[in-house]
Amino acid sequence: MHNIEADTSLLNALKAQTKKSKDLYRPQLFRLSKNEDRHKLNQLLLETKQLQVFDTIKEQVFELLKCLKPLITFMPKTELENLVAERLGKSEEYGVWVYYPWSNKLVHLLDEEEFAIVRTNRNKHKITAEEQQVLSSKKIGVIGLSVGQSVSLTLAMERGFGELRIADFDELDLSNINRIRTGAHNIGLKKTVIVAREIAEIDPFLKVVCYDEGITEDNIVNFLTDNGKLDLLIDECDSFDIKINARKIAKNLRIPVLMEGSDRGTIDIERFDLDSQRPILHGMVEHLDMDKFKDLKTFDEKVPYITAVTGFETLSPRMKASAVELMSSISTWPQLASAVTFGGGVSADLSRKILLNSLKISGRFFLDLDELICDAPPLPSVKKADPEKQALTTQDIELFIRENNISESNELAKNLTETELNDLVEAVKRAPSGGNNQPWRLHYQDKKLHLFLDESTALAYLDPQFVSSYTSIGCAIENLLLAAAVKKLKVQWLLTPQLAPKHLAVFQFFDGIEASEEELLLAQQIPLRHTNRKSPQRAEIEDNELTYLKKLVAETDGANLTFVKDLTQLKNLAQIATATDLFRIFIPEAHEDFITKEMRWTIEQANQTQDGIGIHTLDLNNNDQLGIQLLRDRRMIDFLEKINGGGAFARLLTQQFMSSSAIGLISLPGHQVSSWIQGGIAAQKMWLGATALGLQIHPVNVPLLFFYKNSVEKSLTLTENQKLYLTAAEKELNTIFEKPENQTAVFMFRVFRASASPERTIRKSNNKIFSIGRA
């Protein structure tokens, strides 16, 4: 009967024996010309079971002779054999026997001097004998043994150092083998041990010093200086505080630093040995207090430091997509064996040139194979120009006004002063608009204030038939009417949808009214109202507050406001919003609008254009702000779509929706121009009322605009599956809000309690949106 217990006992004994040898990485050398070594080897042979012996000394001597005298290869075979035999003498005493205890192998090799001659023979004359001699005196330190393993092994193969110090605190995981060249039997071994063993198996005479605990504040100076100062530091570690601290000390010691990023073949060279005043990492981190980094707790706190060191703007599209997907569909930064191996070769090459002082340059460089070797890009498509539309003339406007007499008598209308006009324009300017495009244009002439739509500003992928801009125009009208009421101005006004999209409304003003309490209250909120995108802890809103907001909306004929507070419904709405936001990112035209027309990526850019949404106004943490920044790379977006990515955006939107007290939807009958404008009037009145209650509002209209676009545009650049999804999602949203079929959804928003946003979107100066003509 088979004894399972005996098998288990034997297996445990073998595992215990293996564990004892886990830290061994130095081979034992025996020179049999020495009696002591001969005795030790005999003991080894007696005590070691299943020892594998490899003796190819004759072949090695033959290679040695060829290296010393290349022409001997043309000698007769017998003469060559005699030369080898003469050189060998007592063959077992020739050279050195090397025992590798971790693999139980005994190898007969040439001794160091002859071994080095043969090992480096094929380096000539890429590396001269003199250069090889110089390199054999150099000390190199490698921190981090993923890319660092490839660098170390390549340096060893070229014999590019005399001493190598390697540092890594980590042990090998199964997932590491995608890029670290080693066997699965090494899982659980220290990475330093694995590298040192491989180098010993390549060349047992090379000196390798292991720092198994990695680099710390306590040992960094020792790593750089023990047994003589390093001639080169190669940094491949993941710890950003160690990266900076190591450079600070290396700079003081005038040790050059080399780093390879394994993404886009990124190379950093810092020749502190030639320029002791050179800023570390090319000055990219000078604005940060790196001493604080080690005390930071969250990834979000670390983001500004990480981005400064890595240069996120210059990452490859796939690495940017991976950054977006981090902790969503992947748990750590990706690396490929091909990139790591490539980086190891490049780093070893540069290391040699730096140590031989044949390369003196410093800087950040890219050896991006995707850019150096790639297919030619497709030729850009040329859009055919639309036939020129007939311009709207002053006569058209005057004729329309006469046919739709808006005042009892033009003579009774008030001629507004410049101050009154500027106050009204200021109120208009503070209205919200999609992407903060501010599509309104105002012209005052002959006692009439004309409101126009700037089509060039309004043209956007998610402004189908200008419906989003019409909603913004409605918001501007509400502000104008409130500002006029505060000034005790009676307003007679007329929408001009027949002249849309150019001319949209005309206003005349008369003396003699008092503003109502409601108008005064709402008008006071105009400078305070703003979009708030925060995700606070969810708090309930009183029913009477929601009733008040519904009442304000109902003051616009036909307008209806519905709120949803159920958490399951909020989650369903978040899923719809996420899907349509991803459509917006993935569709090239929509993405182009978002990147160039809507977003402003620096405060300077926002101040220059005086429109768009500054990234600093989005109420985002560092991590989410970084994710938004990465969206600028179209190639990254294409790859993100390919892998069905975007989980980070789903997380952000879900967080926003689920932190909302409620989601509201304003709808009106029909979908004419006037419907969207009236919807804007109702939305702005509601928004100002919410501001008065201390509530925050965040419009989430992207789903509604996609629904409308899907229903009216035959050439919508979506797949059939995406179109079907939009149809189903619209039906689901209508069901959630119990929206009547004859109503058009014009404005959806989050409502919640939170502190005000500290940053606000910029507004255009008056001369860009307002003009005064002759009477």
UniProtKB/TrEMBL annotation:
Gene3D superfamilies: NAD(P)-binding Rossmann-like Domain (3.40.50.720), NADH Oxidase (3.40.109.10)
One Pfam family of this chain: ThiF
Residues in THIF-type NAD/FAD binding fold domain copies: 126-261
Protein name per its UniProtKB record: Rv1355c family protein
Organism expressing this protein natively: Pedobacter helvus
